[in-house]
C-alpha cells in the first residue's frame, strides 16, 4: 500500500503591535490621536491567532510545513514579531513603515497581505491565514474579511473552535454569532479570525525567546509589495469621550431601592 | 441575473444638472431572525435617514421571508425595499451573499451601504467593500453628510471607547460602507399608513461556495434580548459557578424584567454563555438601567456599558473602578444585597 501523500500546510499569521490592553490611553493635546509613549504589546486577538497556529501544528505534526508571522508597522513592530517567533512561529516578515507614517487602514493592510501571499506561491503558497478578529486600538474588525474578499477565499470569522482536516483540505469552524454559535465547513485556503474563546495563549519561555532571536525575519517595504498604505479616510479629530461622573455611594439596600424607585425603576 | 435595469429606473433621476452632486442613496441591510426584524437594523435605518437622501432597504431571506418583507414595507424612513430570496439565503454566509451585494452595487446609484454592527454584517460588509476597493467605517455613533462635497463625516469609538474618532469619507470614496452602533440611534418605527413598493431582486447563484453552513445553535432565553433591553442585570467573577450565577441574578432580573449580562471573567469561567458578555469584545449595551454585581469595571467592560442611563454598582471592594462611573454605588456583598433587593422591589 502506498503511503498517503502528505499535505503540507503553510500558515500565515498577521500580527499587530498595539497599545497594551491594560493601558489607560490619553488623547493628545492636538486632538490628532492618542499618546503613544506608553507600553505596547501584541494585539491580544493576534496572540490567540499565533497560539492557534502552533496548536494546529501540535495536532497535525509534520503536516504543517510552516508558520510565518507578518506585521506591517514601524521599526518597533519587530518586537511583536519576536514575541510571535518565541511562541513558536518559524519565520517572520516585517513590512516596515516609517515611525511618522499614519497607521494603515484595514484595506491597505489587506492588500499588503494579499501581495505577501502572492509572493509565497513559490514556497508552496499559503493555505490558512489566521488573524485576530479586531485590533484593540482602532477596533475596526475588518482586515480578515477584506483579505478574504480580495483573494476570493472562504472566511470564518469569530472562531471559537477550529478543526483542520489536512488530508481533505477542509476546516470545521465553530464561530460566535449574536445569540449563540454557528458551525461552518470551510474549504482551504481559508481566512480565520479569532475570538477570545479560541484558546489561551502560552507564554514564551526564556530559551524560546533566545532561540527566536536567531529565527529569520524578512524585511520589506510597502513599495516592494506594490501597495499604497496611505489612509483613505481622513481622521479629522480624536477626542476624549464625555466624562461620566460617578454619583457617589449609598449606605444601604434601602437607600439603593429608594434611588431606583425615584428613577422610576420598579418591579414589573 | 439581477434585474438591475428595474432597480436603476426607480432610483436615479433621469436628468441631472451638470456638476450637481448625486444626492445620497443608502442601501440598508435589514437583518431578521425568525420573522422578526433585528432592532439594530432599525437603528441603522434611522442612521441612514440622517444622510438626507433616499433609503432603500435590502432583505435577503430564505423562501419563507414573506412576513418579514410585509413588516419591513411599513418601516418609516424607507423609500424603497429590495427583497432577494433563495435557499442559499436561508442560512446565509458572506461567501454566498457578497456576490448579490457586489452585483447590486456594481451598476446602481447607491452612495452608502449601511448595516447594524451585527456579527453577520461585520463579516459581510468588509468583504464586499474590499471587493469594490473602498474602505469601511465600523460601529459609528453619529454621522453627517455634506451633499455639496459628497463627503460623510462619522464619529466612532476607538481604544475600547476611551477615545472618539471623527473620520471623513470624501467624495473619492464612491460608496461609503459603514456599520451602525445600535444604541446610538433610535429604532425606526413602523407606520401602518406607509407601504413602500417591494422589488424582487433575483439571487446571484453561487455554485461552489468555499464555506458551507452546517448548523446554528442559539441560546434560548425568555428574557429580553441583551442588546436592546431597557434594563440589564450583570454579574462578574464572584458568582462562583453557572448555578450560582442563575440562582442569584435571575430572580432580580425577573423582578425588574431585565436582561442578564456578564463580565468576561464570568463568561470565561463558564458561569454564563458567551453571548451574554458585555464589553469591548462582547455586546455594547446602553439600557436605561445597568446593574453591575461583583464587576470590578475593567476598561474592556466599561466599553460595553458606560453609555447606560443609570449605572448601579454593587461590589465589596470600595476601590473598584466601576464606582467611578456608577451613579449609585453600594459597597456590600452581592449575596446579601440581591435577596433584599428582590424583596424590597416587590413591595
TrEMBL record, chain A:
Its main location: mitochondrion. It is found in: Mitochondrion matrix. Binds 1 AMP per subunit. Binds 1 FAD per dimer. Coiled coil: none annotated. It comes from the Eukaryota. It comes from Armillaria gallica (Bulbous honey fungus). Its cofactor is AMP; FAD. InterPro entries: ET-Flavoprotein_bsu_CS (IPR000049), ETF_a/b_N (IPR014730), ETF_b (IPR012255), ETF_beta_N (IPR033948), Rossmann-like_a/b/a_fold (IPR014729). Signal peptide: none annotated. Residues 32-229 form the Electron transfer flavoprotein alpha/beta-subunit N-terminal domain. PROSITE patterns: ETF_BETA (PS01065). GO terms for biological process: amino acid catabolic process; fatty acid beta-oxidation using acyl-CoA dehydrogenase. Heterodimer of an alpha and a beta subunit. GO terms for cellular component: mitochondrial matrix. This is Probable electron transfer flavoprotein subunit beta. One of its GO terms (molecular function) is electron transfer activity. Keywords: Electron transport, Mitochondrion, Transport. Belongs to the ETF beta-subunit/FixA family.
Automatic annotation (TrEMBL), chain B:
Keywords: Electron transport, FAD, Flavoprotein, Mitochondrion, Transit peptide, Transport. One of its GO terms (biological process) is fatty acid beta-oxidation using acyl-CoA dehydrogenase. SUPFAM superfamilies: Adenine nucleotide alpha hydrolases-like, DHS-like NAD/FAD-binding domain. GO terms for cellular component: mitochondrial matrix. Pfam families: ETF, ETF_alpha. Its cofactor is FAD. The keyword Methyltransferase does not apply. It is found in: Mitochondrion matrix. It comes from the Eukaryota. FAD binds at residues 237, 263-264, 277-281, 294-301, 315. GO terms for molecular function: electron transfer activity; flavin adenine dinucleotide binding. Heterodimer of an alpha and a beta subunit. The electron transfer flavoprotein serves as a specific electron acceptor for several dehydrogenases, including five acyl-CoA dehydrogenases, glutaryl-CoA and sarcosine dehydrogenase. It transfers the electrons to the main mitochondrial respiratory chain via ETF-ubiquinone oxidoreductase (ETF dehydrogenase). This is Probable electron transfer flavoprotein subunit alpha.
Amino acid at each position: 500500500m502506498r503511503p498517503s501523500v502528505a499535505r503540507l500546510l503553510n500558515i500565515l499569521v498577521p500580527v499587530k503591535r498595539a497599545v497594551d490592553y491594560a493601558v489607560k490611553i490619553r488623547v493628545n493635546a492636538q486632538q490628532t490621536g492618542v499618546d503613544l509613549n506608553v507600553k505596547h504589546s501584541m494585539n491580544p486577538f493576534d496572540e490567540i491567532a499565533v497560539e492557534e497556529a502552533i496548536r494546529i501544528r501540535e495536532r497535525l505534526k509534520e503536516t504543517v510545513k510552516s508558520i510565518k508571522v507578518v506585521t506591517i508597522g514601524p521599526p518597533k513592530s519587530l518586537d511583536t514579531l519576536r514575541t510571535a517567533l518565541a511562541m513558536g512561529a518559524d519565520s517572520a516578515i516585517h513590512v516596515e513603515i516609517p515611525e511618522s507614517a499614519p497607521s494603515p487602514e484595514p484595506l491597505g493592510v489587506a492588500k499588503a497581505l494579499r501581495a505577501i501571499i502572492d509572493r509565497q506561491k513559490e514556497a508552496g503558497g499559503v493555505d490558512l491565514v489566521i488573524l485576530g478578529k479586531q485590533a484593540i486600538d482602532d477596533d475596526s474588525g475588518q482586515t480578515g474579511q477584506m483579505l478574504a474578499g480580495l483573494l476570493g477565499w472562504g472566511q470564518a470569522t469569530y472562531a471559537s473552535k477550529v478543526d483542520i482536516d489536512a488530508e481533505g483540505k477542509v476546516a470545521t469552524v465553530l464561530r460566535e454569532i449574536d445569540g449563540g454559535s454557528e458551525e461552518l465547513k470551510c474549504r482551504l485556503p481559508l481566512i480565520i479570525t479569532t475570538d477570545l474563546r479560541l484558546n489561551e495563549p502560552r507564554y514564551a519561555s526564556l530559551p524560546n525567546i533566545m532561540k527566536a532571536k536567531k529565527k529569520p525575519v524578512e524585511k520589506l517595504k510597502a513599495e516592494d509589495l506594490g501597495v499604497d498604505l496611505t489612509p483613505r479616510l481622513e481622521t479629522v479629530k480624536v477626542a476624549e469621550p464625555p466624562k461620566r461622573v460617578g454619583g457617589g455611594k449609598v449606605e444601604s439596600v434601602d437607600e439603593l431601592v429608594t434611588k431606583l424607585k425615584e428613577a422610576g425603576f420598579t418591579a414589573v | 441575473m439581477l434585474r438591475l435595469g428595474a432597480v436603476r429606473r426607480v432610483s436615479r433621476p433621469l436628468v441631472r444638472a451638470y456638476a450637481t452632486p448625486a444626492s445620497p442613496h443608502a442601501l440598508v441591510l435589514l437583518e431578521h431572525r425568525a420573522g422578526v426584524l433585528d432592532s439594530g437594523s432599525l437603528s441603522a435605518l434611522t442612521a441612514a435617514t440622517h444622510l438626507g437622501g433616499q433609503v432603500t432597504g435590502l432583505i435577503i431571506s430564505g423562501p419563507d421571508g414573506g412576513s418579514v418583507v410585509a413588516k419591513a414595507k411599513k418601516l418609516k424612513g424607507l423609500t424603497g425595499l429590495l427583497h432577494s430570496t433563495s435557499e442559499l439565503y436561508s442560512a446565509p454566509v458572506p461567501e454566498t451573499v457578497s456576490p448579490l451585494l457586489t452585483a447590486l452595487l456594481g451598476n446602481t446609484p447607491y452612495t452608502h451601504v449601511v448595516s447594524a454592527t451585527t456579527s453577520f454584517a461585520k463579516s459581510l460588509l468588509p468583504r464586499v467593500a474590499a471587493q469594490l476597493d473602498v474602505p469601511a467605517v465600523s460601529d459609528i455613533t453619529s454621522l453627517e453628510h455634506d451633499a455639496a462635497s459628497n463627503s460623510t463625516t462619522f464619529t466612532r469609538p476607538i481604544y475600547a471607547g476611551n477615545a472618539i474618532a471623527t473620520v471623513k469619507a470624501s467624495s473619492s470614496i464612491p460608496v461609503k460602507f459603514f456599520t451602525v452602533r445600535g444604541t446610538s440611534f433610535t429604532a425606526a418605527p413602523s407606520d401602518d399608513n406607509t407601504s413602500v413598493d417591494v422589488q424582487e431582486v433575483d439571487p446571484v447563484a453561487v455554485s461552489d461556495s468555499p464555506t458551507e453552513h452546517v448548523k446554528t445553535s442559539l441560546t434560548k432565553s425568555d428574557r429580553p434580548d441583551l442588546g436592546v433591553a431597557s434594563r440589564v442585570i450583570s454579574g462578574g467573577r464572584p458568582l462562583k459557578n453557572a448555578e450560582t450565577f442563575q440562582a442569584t441574578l435571575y430572580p432580580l432580573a425577573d423582578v425588574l424584567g431585565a436582561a442578564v449580562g456578564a463580565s468576561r471573567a464570568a463568561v470565561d469561567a463558564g458561569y454564563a454563555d458567551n453571548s451574554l458578555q458585555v464589553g469591548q469584545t462582547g455586546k455594547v449595551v446602553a439600557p436605561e438601567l445597568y446593574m453591575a454585581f461583583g464587576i470590578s469595571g475593567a476598561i474592556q467592560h466599561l466599553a460595553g456599558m458606560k453609555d447606560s442611563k443609570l449605572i448601579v454598582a454593587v461590589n465589596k471592594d470600595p476601590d473598584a473602578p466601576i464606582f467611578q462611573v456608577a451613579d449609585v454605588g453600594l459597597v456590600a456583598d452581592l449575596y446579601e444585597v440581591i435577596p433584599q433587593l428582590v424583596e424590597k422591589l416587590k413591595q
